[in-house]
Design brief:
It is a single chain. The protein is globular. The protein has one domain. The chain is 63% helix and 0% strand. The protein has helices at 8-25, 33-36, 39-45, 51-56, 65-69, 73-83, 89-104.
Length: 107
């Protein structure tokens, strides 16, 4: 007696494709902020249309990475908590990174 199961070839092809996608994003990646925080992400999770708008509307002048690093973390977390669906910058960054990775590997 034998059982025939279909679909394994398609599954194998899908897994091969996923592996190739993962290899493309492995290691460290420098991702532009407007790509990491896509317009769709921003509209869904914040009251802004872009990450630039979130920064521009903040009480700080954020033109460079150094400007950003000078902001007290607790104050920026309060700003994020007030204007987004996240309680902290770290939570927002993590969610954006997960969505970005999902887009890269076509999930």
């Amino acid at each position: 007696m034998s059982v025939q199961i279909e679909g394994f070839e398609e599954l194998a092809d899908s897994l091969d494709s996923l592996q190739q996608d993962l290899e493309g994003v492995s290691g460290k990646n420098e991702i532009p902020m407007n790509e990491l925080f896509s317009a769709s992400f921003m509209r869904t999770h914040t009251e802004f249309d872009s990450i630039d708008e979130l920064f521009d509307s903040s009480p700080w002048e954020i033109e460079t990475e150094n400007d950003f690093k000078q902001i007290p973390e607790s104050e920026f977390d309060d700003y994020i908590d007030t204007h987004t669906g996240f309680s902290s910058w770290e939570a927002m960054l993590t969610a954006a990174a997960r969505e970005w990775l999902s887009r890269q590997i076509n999930l």
